[in-house]
Amino acid sequence: MMLLSVKETEKMDDIDAMFSDLLGEMNTLSQSLMPSADRTEVDSALQTERTFSIGFTDLNESLKELEDHDLDALMADLASRSTTSECSLPTYQQAGSCADNEMAASALPPPSNSVESSGGLQTSEPQTKSDKFKLALEKLKEAKVRKLIVKVLMSDGSSKILMVDERQTVREVLDMLFEKTHCDCSIDWSLCETNPELQIERGFEDHEHVVEPLSSWTRLSENKMYFVSRPQKYVMFTNPQVFYMWKKKKECSSKINEQAKQLLLQEHFGGSTLIVPDLEGTLYLKEDGKKVWKPRYFVLRASGIYYVPKGKTKSSSDLVCFVHFEKFNIYNTKHFKLKYRAPTDFCFMLKHPCIQNESDYIKFLCCDDEHTLLLWVNSIRIAKYGTTLYENYQAAMKRAHPSASHKGPPPSIESSNSRPRK
């Protein structure tokens, strides 16, 4: 097999980046090429699809599964949105913009029914669930905020039905589940997505908006969302020595006391920029389209993962970018030793969230052991999310221990916009 030169390899990396950008622009481009009449029809169809269900066969089924108080909350929210739209109509008309008038009109219910609908919501409090369901179904089709009715599976096989919209973060949904399940508010609780076809799973980060990753699922997807306890969710903060003293013997890092851990956190997370673990080592890379894995020496940087080409050194000038983190998420895998003949079952995957099936644009990496997998997966999370990850941890600790003042980096830590550095 002919080996690619460094320049050719860099071109391939550029192609991967171009493909990632292309995923986000395809929909915009296709709509811009449509005639305006066709585009109006498509927009109307998309509007009816803005609210759908996850874990159900259709929207009707998911609405019927909502608990009474959740359905009441949905009705109240939709009613307030309808009232807001009615009040804002004169403003749109005064502006004289044709596009704005169309937007306002679409936000309102038909004129002949608007008063009746509003009155019905205010006066018919003893409505049956069937009546509420029918009215909610109509109002959802008019809603301007994307809403999902989601079935969240529990570890004991039961499930909870939630209504979430595009403004809600994972942290907020976790709080909803704490109230519904009456479980403890441990920092380990997570929302996770699973993809049976690819045999992967990923824990959502607490700052993510839940609707965004779920909207990447295909309509007939068998993906599922779980509410589970993941003890390694914030291991980089509860045991920072594992990641920032990984070159030392395990005996040394395991004996570190709590005060030393706090000093490590202050050193690496307390400044204006976050310091990424200086992780490097040999991983096995799966060749595209083949069940063949070859060892390469990889190096973690704040911007992505790099590898050392054959015959080159580990100096920065020789490193070649393997993947940038902006367009990729990291996923844990299951049974890849059997499925792809991986050297071990300690593998992880890097892919664009919109890719839901087998693709040549997916990156597969395999580690020698579980500890190495722990180091790479969580160090990549640190590099990708920066100080936002630490802020998530602080919020989780505050929720778990509201009366305790958590020790950590001084208040000078900057916002999540600060960039990680190496």
TrEMBL record:
Its main location: membrane. It holds the Pfam family PH. Residues 103-129, 401-422 are annotated as: Disordered. One of its GO terms (cellular component) is cytosol. It is found in: Cell membrane; Cytoplasm, Cytoskeleton. Residues 276-385 form the PH domain. The keyword Cell membrane applies. CDD domains: PH_APBB1IP. Residues 113-127, 413-422 have a biased composition (Polar residues). Keywords: Cell membrane, Cytoplasm, Cytoskeleton, Membrane. Residues 146-233 form the Ras-associating domain. It is a peripheral membrane protein. One of its GO terms (biological process) is signal transduction. Belongs to the MRL family. This is Amyloid beta A4 precursor protein-binding family B member 1-interacting protein. The lineage of its organism: Eukaryota, Metazoa, Chordata, Craniata, Vertebrata. The gene is LOC117545420.
